[in-house]
Structures are given as C-alpha cells and as structure tokens.
Amino acid sequence: MNVYQPFRVRVEEKIDETADTRTLKLKFLDPDVANTFDFKAGQFGEYSVFGAGECTFCIASSPTRKGYIECSFKTVGKVTSAMKDLEVGDVMGFRGPYGNAFPMEKMHGGNVVFIAGGIGLAPVRCVIWNVLDERAKYKDVTIVYGARTVADLVYKRELEDWGKRPDVKLWTTVDPGGETPDWKGQVGFVPAIVEKAAPKAENSWAVVCGPPVMIKYTIPVLKKMGFTEDRILTTLENRMKCGIGKCGRCNIGPVYVCKDGPVFTAQEMAKLPNEF
Amino acid sequence: MSTTTFIRTEDLKGLVADLRAAGVGVAGPARTSDGAVDYRSINAFDDVVLDAQPRNSLKQFFLPPTEPLFKYQRKGSDVAILEISATFPPRVIVGARPCDAAAVDVLDHVMNWDYKDEPWFGRREATTIVSFACPGGDRSCFCTAVGLGPDATRGSDLLLVPAGDGYYVEVVTEKGKRLVDAYPKRFGAGAGVDATLSYREKARASVEGHVPARPDVIRQWVQEHFEDPFWADISLRCHGCGGCAAACPTCHCFDIVDEPETLDAGTRRRNWDTCQTSVFTAHASGHNPRADQCGRCRQRVNHKFAIYPARFNDILCTGCGRCARTCPAGQDVTEILTRIVAMATGQGGAA
Predict the structure, then answer these.
(1) A8 interaction partners in chain B (CB closer than 8 Å)
(2) I need a labelling partner for B340 at 20 to 30 A (CA). Which of A15, B27, B75, B274 fits?
(3) Is there a single domain that holds both residue A84 and residue A120?
(4) Which CATH number do you get for residue A68?
(5) pLDDT tens per residue across span A136-150
C-alpha cells in the first residue's frame, strides 16, 4: 500500500443542493478505518471515482460527527461529472485528511462570524457544525451567507435550521435580481450585508470563504469594523494532485496550499503574491 | 564514510559481468539505436559511453515517466483495489554523472516531506549509484555554481575518478561499501588521490564561470521580485513545451490519472508533468491562477532557486544544463541566472 492509495468509501446518501451542486455522504468500508478516521475542521481530501480520477475538496461535514464524511461539489469537470453519476451504494475513493485546520481551540470563548458565498459555504459549514455541536465553548455565532440567486443557495435545509436557532444570528442574501417573490432574506452583495449585520469585532473571529471577489471586498469591511487580520480566517483552494506536498501544483509563490494551508489568516494572505 | 580503494578498468568490466551474472540489473550511459547517449540498461561495461552527457537524467530510474500506483476492479457497485507489488529489483547504475547522482539526493527531501513516497524510496534503497567523475562540461554546465562539481560525491554510493590503469574509488556510503565488500577481488591497491588531481582540475575549469556561484543572491532576488518585468521578458522565448522539465534531473512535478483498461478495470497512474503548461494549474471552473507563460517561467525558476531552498535548505538544480540544451527556443538557464545576479548586485540585467 502506498501513500497514493485511497480508502474505499460507500455513497450512503446523495443530496442535490442546487441544479448543479450535490452533497455526498460517504462511509468507510474498512471498519478499522471507519472507527479510527479522524480529521480537523478545514482539512481536505482527494476524492476519486475509479476510472475518472481524483479531485480535491474540503471535508464539508464536521469532525464532531463521527463515522462518515461529506463532500459538496459542483458538477464542472470529468471527476465531478462521474461523482454525480454515482448512486447510493456505489464505492468511490478518498485519501486524507490533508492540510492544516481552523484554530478551533483558539476560538474557544470567542464570538464567531461565518461569511460565505455560493459553494464557499461547504468548508465553512464544517466549522459551523463543529461550533454548533460544541455550542457552549463559543459565544455569539453569526452567519452571513449569500448566493447569486435563491436557486444557488446550498444546504437550504440547514439554513432553515440555523435560522430557527435562538443561538445563531443568520443573514442570508442573494445578489440583486436573484430574489424570488417569496424571498424573505436580504438582497445585496455579501460585503454590504456583513456591514448591515454589524457583528462586534471584540473577542471575535471571522471565517470567510467564497469567490475571490467576495473575499476581496469583505476583508476591508471586517477590518473597518475592527477585526484584526490574524482573526480573519479563510480557506483557499488551488488545483492539486497529490495533496501531500510533492506534485508541485498548488504553489502560491513560496506557499504550498496543501501543506501550509488550506486555512490561512488574512495576515498570511496579504503576504501572498497574486497567484490564486 | 570516507574510505578509498582502486579498481582497474579490466576489473570494472569484470564487476559489471559479475553483477549481471548475479541477476542484478545494470544501467549506464550507452548509445541508443539513433546514436544518442542515454542512461539505459546495459549488459557489459564496454557499452558505457563516458565522454558525452546522457540526454536523459537518472530521474526515470526512481520516478518513472509513467508508473502504476494501483489497479482497480469494479464488481457491481463495489470496487476492489489491487496493490502493485512493492518490491523493487536490485540495480546498479554504473557511470552516473555527479550532477545526476546529486539530483536524486536533492529530491529525497520532497519525497520524504511528512509523507514518504514509497515507490521513490523503494527504488532508492534497491539502487546503488556508481558515479564517474565528469570529464568536463560544455557552455551550459554550471554545477560549481550550485555547490556541486564534476567530482562531487553527493548522491553517489561510489565515486570513480580515472587514474593510472583504472579508477581511484571514493567509497561514499554504506551501500557503496557493501558493493565493494561483495566483490573484494575486483578492488585493490592502485593509484592514489594525487593521480586524479589534474583530471579534476581540468574538469572543474571547464564548467566554472558560466554562472556566478551566488545561489544566496539568486534566492533573495527571486524572493523579492515576484512582480518584475524580467519574468515577462524571459517568457517571450518560451513555447511552454515543458521539454526543460522532462530533461531536468530534479523536476519532479507529476500528475495522477486513471487509465481505464476495460469498462470495469483500470490503473491509477502517476505521470511526469510540467509547470510550463497552462493546464497544470487550470481549475475546472476555467480560472487559472497562473494564467500566462510569464508566471510559469517564473514558477520554474522560483521553485528551483527560492521555494525549494526556503523549504529544504537545498537548491532544486544541479547545474547539468540539460534544460538549456533541450530548449527548442534557446531558453538558457545560465543566462537567466547570470542576469539575476547582475540585477541583484546592481550591475544591470538588460538583455
């Protein structure tokens, strides 16, 4: 067995999030692996369909939920198309967990603000459930989530749950023109809604993930509110093959996204060259 | 380890014959059917060509251009993973160039970075590298500028230097000693180190001065000039073919792909890849963080002379010059590095 050989996982459940985005719930076939597999919020893996190849995604489920992992993906290329063709019961591959993680222990006792756009909610959702499953360890929880249109919102059933919880302040938004007549959330771009939500910066952490343009305009808003760069966290993705620092693909300047990331602070991001 | 011994040319021939008789694979620089010299399997020492740098490097003996990682077999909804045999037959490489032997040692860092690449180290352990001190290089050689030299021992298990009626032998590693100990009759007394000095001097003189020996200066300039017109300038010459990376003894970037052989069975393979193509970094979404050749040329220089040094305190280049010799457009690494040193030390860098 070499380091590139995946664990076998079985599709337990498939959930269509949007017209082109799906979540797969995966269980390890080997009972030893199933019992011992562990990961930290923010880590990623290499998912594969045998015959189609491998693809890199975060683990979208929370490490507090044992015995399975979930991934959410948009059907864009060869592997994601093959993943979309899988039926419940089919076997695929998973290697991981790889990379660093969100500093959950450091965040204990603090307020957490989650800001996500589009499919960027997948890695953030992992942290959200980690926080909510250990709710007592954190103070205020605010979630700001936006998508282009109502149809593009992912994890809709969970957004409903979070919206009902008294211990979560949820703001959902869609881009202007993306709303439906019965849309009850906000209309506007994510940075503007963050400003409106106005989470307090004191003793707070921000977890931000979404399209580069969203991140670009959200970080200044957070800084204006008083968030310091070392407490603004994001997770990057770059094309990868090995996931373990060897294949040479994911460099952003001197940084290996697979080994130094995928989680970076805004402070670290500011030092990176424009290559992501 | 730093013992020395001697082997006569006749005994060297005998040693290769002994190894072949014992079922050990032997490879060395030898003529191909089209008259070029490549590192390839040989049957006798007489096949070895020592006066020309092989076109390829030793890389393929440890990281083959394509290699199976495992096989898969689908049965209904289930899939079986069939492991590839992890045993590697013993091999001795006779006539390695010191730049190529060093490259293998340089790559050990990344191949063992937190995760051990078993196929790489399996072949490393099974292979003994017998290098021959280089007789001297051409205009593209610059091993002395990256801390090596025509008689550098790095990565070699034995280093042979011509002397008298044979070769002065430096026993560099335990593995090298095991080879000497296994064939005691082939090694013995002979010319000493003094008899090798003029050979070494002449070889060194032939490669010195092609690039300023300032890897620290190069590293710092590259680290501080991610955005610089220099990268666009050098990239104008690049076709993005990746020939440099294929020829390079230290370029190790790879792809992982599935190759179906039937509808239900196939092989996941690792294949050589190159950072010089646009698809290397292209996301499925269409976004490409390294969207133009400027960024790709920078990446190759950056990885070798800044990223790898920062990460492993080692240079991802052994000065073999193959990239310059291979490039169909005349991209010359010695020119790139010389210009960087000139810019860094304030002596101008204009083409």
Answers:
(1) 79, 81
(2) B274
(3) no
(4) 2.40.30.10
(5) 999 999 999 999 999
